Amino acid sequence: MKYLEEYRDPAAARRFARAIRRITTRPWTIMEICGGQTHAIVRYGIDKLLPPEITLVHGPGCPVCVTPLELIEKAIAIARRPEVIFCSFGDMLRVPGADCDLLAVKAAGGDIRIVYSPLDAVELARRHPDREVVFFAVGFETTAPTCAMAAYQARQEGLANFSLLVSHVLVPPAMEAILSAPGNRVQGFLAAGHVCTVMGVTEYLPLAGRYRVPIVVTGFEPLDILQGIYMTVKQLEEGRAEVENQYARVVLREGNRPAQALIQEVFQVVPRKWRGVGEIPASGLGLSDAYRALDAERRFAVDTHHLDEPAECISGLILQGVRKPPDCSAFGTRCTPEHPFGATMVSSEGACAAYYRYRRVDLDGLALDFGAAGPADAHSIGEKP
Amino acid sequence: MTTLDPFALACPLPIADYPRVLLAHGGGCRLMNQLIERLFAAAFDNPLLGERHDGAAFAVPAGRLAFTTDSYVVHPLFFPGGDIGRLAVNGTVNDLAMCGARPLYLSAAFILEEGLPMETLWRVVQSMRDAAAAAGVQIVTGDTKVVDRGKADGLYINTAGVGLLEHERVIAPRQVREGDLVLINGDLGRHGMAIMAVREGLAFESDIESDTAPVAAPVQALLAAGLDVHCLRDLTRGGLTSALVEIAETAGVHIHLDERAIPVREAVRGACEMLGLDPLYVANEGRFAVVVAAADADRALAILRADPAAEGAAVIGRVLGSQPGLVTMRSQIGANRILDRLSGEQLPRIC
Amino acid sequence: MCLAIPGKIISIDEGADPLLRSGRVSFGGILKAVNLAYVPDAAIGDYVIVHVGFALNKVDEAEARQVFAYLSQVEDLSELEEESP
Question: Of B131, B123, B111, whose CA–CA distance to B286 is shortest?
Answer without folding.
Answer: B131
